[in-house]
UniProtKB/TrEMBL annotation, chains A, B:
Name of this protein: Rhodanese domain-containing protein
Organism, scientific name: Pleodorina starrii
Encoding gene per record: PLEST007827
Swiss-Prot/TrEMBL cofactor(s): FAD
Family (UniProt): Belongs to the class-III pyridine nucleotide-disulfide oxidoreductase family.
Alphabetical UniProt keywords: FAD, Flavoprotein, Oxidoreductase, Redox-active center
Domain Rhodanese positions: 507-596
InterPro entries (alphabetical): FAD-bd_OxRdtase, FAD/NAD-bd_sf, FAD/NAD-binding_dom, FAD/NAD-linked_Rdtase_dimer_sf, Pyr_nucl-diS_OxRdtase_dimer, Rhodanese-like_dom, Rhodanese-like_dom_sf
GO molecular function list: oxidoreductase activity
Amino acid sequence: MLSLGRRVAFRTATIKRAARSVTIGCSASMATEAAGGKRRVLIVGGVAGGASCAARLRRMDEQAEITIFERGPYVSFANCGLPYFVGDVIKEQSSLLVANAAKFNKWFNVAVRESTEVVAIDRAAKTVTARDVTSGQESVHPYDYLVLSPGGNAIRPPLPGADLPGIFVVKTIPDANAIKAWVAEKNAKSAVVVGGGFIGLEMVENLVHRGLKCSLVEMLPQVMPPYDPEMVEPAHERLRAAGVDLHLGDGVAGFDRAPDGGLIVRTAGGKAHAADLVVLAIGVRPETTLARQAGLELGSRGGIRVDEHMRTSDAAIFAVGDAAEVKDFVTGEQTLIPLAGPANRQGRIVADVITGNEPSRFRGSQGTSVVGLFGLTLAATGASEKTLRRLGAAHQKVYLHINNHAGYYPGAKQIDIKLLFDPKDGRVLGMQSVGEEGVEKRVDVVAMAIQKGATVFDLEEAELCYAPQYGSAKDPVNMVGMVAANVVRGMHPLTTWDELDLQQLATDPGVVLVDVREPSELDKVGKVAGAVNMPLSGLRQQLAKLQDKDKKYYVYCQVGLRGYVATRQFLQNGFDAVNVSGGFKSFQQQLPDRSAKL
Amino acid sequence: MLSLGRRVAFRTATIKRAARSVTIGCSASMATEAAGGKRRVLIVGGVAGGASCAARLRRMDEQAEITIFERGPYVSFANCGLPYFVGDVIKEQSSLLVANAAKFNKWFNVAVRESTEVVAIDRAAKTVTARDVTSGQESVHPYDYLVLSPGGNAIRPPLPGADLPGIFVVKTIPDANAIKAWVAEKNAKSAVVVGGGFIGLEMVENLVHRGLKCSLVEMLPQVMPPYDPEMVEPAHERLRAAGVDLHLGDGVAGFDRAPDGGLIVRTAGGKAHAADLVVLAIGVRPETTLARQAGLELGSRGGIRVDEHMRTSDAAIFAVGDAAEVKDFVTGEQTLIPLAGPANRQGRIVADVITGNEPSRFRGSQGTSVVGLFGLTLAATGASEKTLRRLGAAHQKVYLHINNHAGYYPGAKQIDIKLLFDPKDGRVLGMQSVGEEGVEKRVDVVAMAIQKGATVFDLEEAELCYAPQYGSAKDPVNMVGMVAANVVRGMHPLTTWDELDLQQLATDPGVVLVDVREPSELDKVGKVAGAVNMPLSGLRQQLAKLQDKDKKYYVYCQVGLRGYVATRQFLQNGFDAVNVSGGFKSFQQQLPDRSAKL
């Protein structure tokens, strides 16, 4: 703790120094501009934030001299499309090129220097040194404002064999082309993907789509690390159903070349997975080399520290995108959000700030995300339960398993929802959802709700589109809001399977687990061992005869609705009862191996 | 005006009398309850609001005596599914039955009297008279609280021949069965649907789906009357493409029997449309007979007047659903919203108010709606431009034509968006959208935004799900927010095709219409007659040479983006320029026959 304290003190000193030097720099720059000179803006990195910044800068200031340096060969490309390009879902590389240098020049009069890396910043002189990556030739460029949009680097772990041929990352078009070429040249039949996040899952799907036999190795016991584990259980099922060998909870220890010329991925758990191809998708590290060398302040998560105007510790230098550390809108924590949407918004904000258009601020990121996986969609916005637990933040959760549209219209699909909210005032903190249809729609609605500080009462009242092929008179967003609102109102005591004391349920005669489904359902889908069946259809009659008012009744049904109705009957008849959120469906998803234990 | 004034005065008097009688009634009721009696709640009409009210009442109060009277044979059914049941998309009638009397009884201990019509209310005695529609037998039932959820009646206009066999409405399951039976028995090959609203369009789609040749007759010059006309132009196209004879701007004058046994629909315009079947879908009239006879106050739109607790002018009587007049959340106007979602919410609110659970209020309705039509989706939330014009409310609009997801991912579809907002503070007033995919998702997000009083700046910043098959880094919601925000900021002068002075454009040399697309595009998709082509790619060079700084330049491109970029160049070079929202796409949709005029 002491060393951390010293480090913080040191950093504060650094900030102050930077601020001082900046003041001087700023004045100089303003003098330049005031003297009729044109604003000189240099942008390092063009992909998302840098390109957005350049385009808006030009719309705000026709006179500015704007230059983008991009170390890669393409100034702006759709890196979110790379896995689908590898999978031949996107056929043409040209589709990925959002804007080329010629367009930037013609539309925006922006000079683009591709394959040019900025290798040094001289903050005092306000210049950068750029190096042509082909010729190695260096040049010096003055700036009034410098915008750092260097992105992140795909992490290659320092493990034995990590640099063997056939081991790839997926961050750039050349990366994708290298994988495609390797698959074609080696006639690759199998792949190991390391890392079960967004890119890892998309790579698995696309490699399977190309006909490769895939293994997925993930160090954590779940895929999609930002999501809560029970919400990704359907993704695990979907991966296995697609023939993917899923190895969870086992990290990679190293790589070997196999006798047949293939690769072997060795795990910490002692396993060896052979494949013709390995894709590393274990994350992105913010590219901060340039910023660090220039003495810019970094944040606690290792990204470039910026204020709400995306200004670094040097007031003439801004940072946006994957390399910038931003505030989590919900938790207030510092965070790194390697997503295109926030990067684009940040680029625009910087353009506004530089041109003095308005006091444009980045309000933080909610981490809204979505991934498609073999027909399944997983999406989330706001804080996860694990984040809230880690922060010790008060939270309550409800689960919902519900049709994406009216059940009476053909083709309804179940979606699973987990909503996190403040138990005191009902403020929505986060939502995760999984299913085949209509998943990201509900997450988008709740993303807007969170942005506007909405409560579960607002979700309850939301007026959303309803026709039977699109939704329900009570949309899933309404339903999850209603359940949560009743919890906040105190009329719906609710618990979750993971909070139940299994030991107590099995041994304590004062605690009763009640299954209120009809006997035919139990026969069909199973029940939780040890539960007493008291079907809702006859519950009133049973309660009239039930004597044990000093026992505690945990009530569940199939998805939670009847459990709620039953719980109200218990409570109003003087029994102490709690509904188990999400019912048997949640039990199956959260505790697939638990039935035997009860 | 004088007579209206008198009427208002009279009504006020009525309210006061009602309030007095209510006070007494209330005390009596409370006395009953206080004396250990059970709350007796009678509900008139079960379909949506009544059923929701009953279920929640029971969850709040296990002791209450709850009875639902439903004049139809089914206490609660999915009336939004009726057109699809006629079309055999929904195969089984049983699918439409949301809950039957047995379930209401078993789950909720609610007595359900189907095929029983309440024919009179004695407010002083606090009783209703109910009549068994089969036997005609009447019975009297006391209440502490009465909930009116009578719904609406499908309008049968008082026109000659309107009662001829073969002319149907679509409001109940028996209505739908009658249509199905007629089609089968008469081997019907053709139909005329009268009315182009939600039900009319859904009936056309479903009758076509059954193989009938359909004509659609609509009095207004557009289908979907709540929507602005230019936004439903794609629906007109889609109807014609599906082989529907579309007759707009022509009302029905009467009906005749044809010599061959079929029907003839005669229009005000002198046309005669023959068909084997006629469906009247010209709207719903709130069922207020009972309320009127009981002396309950009606609202300015003809519905039952209620306060924000859904209480009528008699404090022991509530009204919900299609028959209740509510407040428009955006405009503050009184309105009738015959939609299931608001009805359900209102039913729940009444249950809360009766049981004293909390000060539950209905916050008004936004009129969020959606309809599917031969693969096209039309959706809207908030106020339309025509409503805002009628009210004289300040508003600005922008059009957007944009891909539903990243264009680089296969299968992107264009969606058209119209956003209405307050030009002063940017508050979002309404949005309409049409397209094949992802339409209602964006409307739902904006519905939540409007509910929370969001501005276009909030839409600009929204953090929504992005992966290439779901959306874009700048989602359509962001994009329309960005365009509108730039308008509010004053950096993007914008007009729309309908606001352009055609005459001036054609005759005034001081006004120039500039097309900034590339020449190849103009050759391919056409241009607006009289426009000067100044491609964006070379605009800077042209502007440097352009002298006419005292002219006004109206700029357009294909969808509006390049028009914006070009407008900024014009402005910053000292020219007076305005972008035309939505570009050539909007021109085509809004003014399909206008090209020749310019």
